[in-house]
Amino acid sequence: YEHGPVDGRPRMYTEMLEQPASVERALRGRLDERFATAHLGGLDMDARELRAVRRVKILGCGSAYYVGQMGASLVEELARIPADAEAASEFRYRDPVIEPDTLYVAVSQSGETIDTLLAVQEIRRKGGRVIGLVNVVGSAIARACDGGIYLHAGPEIAVASTKALTTMFVGFALLALQLGRVRDLSVADGRRLVAGLQSLPAQIEQVLGDEERIARAAASLATAESLFFVGRVRGYPVAREGAQKFKEISYRHAEAYQMSELKHGPLALVSPEVPTVALVPDDELTDRNVAALHEIDARGGPLVVVTHAGVDLGELRAERIDVPRNERELDPLLLTVPLQLLAYHAALTLGHDVDKPRNLAKSVTVE
Ligand code: AGP
């Protein structure tokens, strides 16, 4: 695989555009419509072993860690198993307690990230069971795990990860569905999610089709020295990933915050010079989120709002980007895609080479 641009387009761009196909591949052969579940043979765990899982702990670095947070929510929502994500780079330095009935999940595109690999080795040394959500077949992390799920994103060359991340989300959704269906997740809910997952490729295509509008919003953000990305609950890891992508290629200071925490401090920074990108899906928190947007607007803070059609934002000065509706649990994936395009177009506006972000390597293989 060549590392340069494809048909004059940056790698990152072509990889973003591949997402309908890569998500399709990540799903292929893994959904079972009849039993409304997922089958992940690579886990190498039978129903009894899956039922014995009492906790799920997800480990990854950078964007993989943020998608891990999205994955933890999916596991808790669908399987009702306590789950959380932690930066793999910190994990082994706090001498973690390794529990026999916890399922550890290492998530990595390259499968070579040293911090994630060392976390896997630490867990296995203490007798824990680790599965990998890995893109590169036969990589160090894939080999070090007890079993796993290959992402099938295809080769990802651009430093700023896009298509691998969306397949990671799919991997977590499949895992959560399978864990849920050996527990209390109903057939009806299983069916709902199977159908939701099947709709994702076409819906991603739809978001990508909104590129022009997103590029306009990006141009309005590119001049800001500093900006916020905010969301709540399912939207918060999306905000973290959005801020990460923006920082990596635009070199602007972008900080992610829970929308609910703004009033506890950072609201002091909101001004006409500091824009906010807000994730406001149509969910149980929409009204509260919209109220917070009005607080930002009242302080003159420019807004880009990623939301669903039909969400009433009231009288608000904002650039609005609507993403298609799916099942609420799957919202984070469709909210993430416009943020990739936003970072990409902001970086282009600023004249940066998005495929060669300064100071960054594609995978970090030394501590
Ligand atoms: C993503 O845009 C980053 N370049 C970076 O955070 C990356 O996700 C991280 O280094 C983890 O890499 P991995 O998935 O190959 O382990």
TrEMBL record:
Name of protein: Glutamine--fructose-6-phosphate aminotransferase [isomerizing]
Enzyme class: transferase
Major location (coarse): cytoplasm
A single cellular component GO annotation: cytosol
Part of the whole protein covered: 241 to 607 of 607
Keyword Thylakoid part of the UniProt annotation: no
Subcellular location: Cytoplasm
The SIS domain, residue ranges: 46-185, 217-357
Keyword Heme listed: no
Lineage: Bacteria, Bacillati, Actinomycetota, Actinomycetes, Micrococcales
